[in-house]
């Protein structure tokens, strides 16, 4: 059995309730004017029923307020769910953008790391080359010093001693 609701005095509200499938039984057409006229006629004929009619009207108004509040609460809950869904979609989109940005940054990092490794290799090669050039320069300087000593004709004892010391230091450094 379908529960019967008290008749409402607002035809727009009744139409809304009928549209959403809440409220009235489809077999029973609601005639607000007949219900109101009957209540008014009965209230005019019997004074003791006047208080019961006003109590019924107050009950009808309370039921109507409860019904409106229930509808309002459902609509508010629907709006809240829609807001929550939009927020969730925004968070998912943001997470996707952050993942894409993270991937881009990771690729850039790998590129920078590869370039840094290349620079380190080049630096090591240049240091080795500088060391080799330094050794060649030292050998050339020794050869020039010996040539100057031999070209001078005489061996001075102090020049010879300094050359021996210099050669001794050089040999210990490179052996």
Automatic annotation (TrEMBL):
Q: Give the UniProt keywords, A-Z.
A: DNA-binding, Nucleus, Transcription, Transcription regulation
Identify the main location: nucleus
For this protein, the record's PROSITE patterns field holds: BZIP, BZIP_BASIC
Location in or out of the cell: Nucleus
- The superkingdom listed in its UniProt entry is Eukaryota
Any one Gene Ontology MF annotation carried by this entry is: transcription cis-regulatory region binding
Protein's GO biological process? positive regulation of DNA-templated transcription
KW Nucleus (keyword) present: yes
Where is it found, in Gene Ontology cellular component terms?
A: nucleus
InterPro entries listed in its UniProt record: bZIP (IPR004827), bZIP_sf (IPR046347)
Q: Where is this region: Disordered?
A: 38-63
Family annotation (Pfam families):
bZIP_1
Q: Which SUPFAM superfamilies does the entry mention?
A: Leucine zipper domain
List, alphabetically, the Gene3D superfamilies matched. 1.20.5.170
Show where the BZIP domain sits. Answer: 63-126
Protein name (Swiss-Prot/TrEMBL): BZIP domain-containing protein
UniProt organism field: Setaria italica
Species lineage: Eukaryota, Viridiplantae, Streptophyta, Embryophyta, Tracheophyta
